[in-house]
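Technical note accompanying the year-one report. For the benefit of new consortium partners, we illustrate the data format agreed upon in the data management plan: each record pairs a sequence with a structure-token string. No post-processing was applied to the example shown here.
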Amino acid sequence: MSHDSSVKVWRMTDLNDAEMLKGTYVHHIYPWHSHEEVSLGLVLEGAIHLRTRSRDGIAKAGSFTLINAEEAHYGTPVNEEGWRCRTIHLDLDMVKSVAEDLRKWVPASTIAFVGPTFDDPLAARELLELHKRSESDTSALDRQSWLITLIARLLLRHSDANVWIPDQVREPLAVDRARTYLAEHLAEKVTLDALSARSGIPPFQLLRAFQQNVGLTPHAFQTQARVREARRLLREQQPLADIAATTGFADQAHLTRTFKAIMGMTPGQYRTASHAG
């Protein structure tokens, strides 16, 4: 780990303007303070001792950190090496929206997460994947799906809210509407909210129903549909740049990476093989 403190900050408009932080903190002590957003974090190296007015704990490598909006907290390094972490400052409205979806099953109490730190490997993996995707060329639909799933997990496992979801959420008509919309709008940057509106059910409910019916997330289905259309256009000998634009990929390089991941060959290799003989 670096011996110097450093931090990078950026914002994600497609995640309700969430603030993303990636930093290394050495000899840094947080005074008592609070944020207007919910703070979600993952310690990657080192350790920090976090305190709120009612709880405290040591967040070490792999630990999840969670501070409620407007919750006063204080942090000190456990040793002189400090800690390295990734953090998301998330608008409380995003949490409320997911909670409202879960409340359709059982009335919930006021939202309050139980922090400031805990071990939850699945939540840690989801936060890390989401954070990495905020630095890549993945779609808004993909990032929003990861965030909604993470928030739901935290509400269900680490909050005082009385929320619950059934094991099965089929909604075949809603899923069919979502599949059709994705297939017919390959070139568009479809958001989860837009897909939810088209399907007629809330975002988290749609994510669960879609995966249970299709076996894929909406983003994975969209990517598959784009690659299938790219295959058809390759057989028609259309230029790669045109195919990338038509099928919704950011550029030719994005098309090539995704196509190879799914097909095991580049678009050029596929074009050649499909016309061999």
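Partners are asked to follow this layout when depositing records. The longest helix spans residues 140-157.
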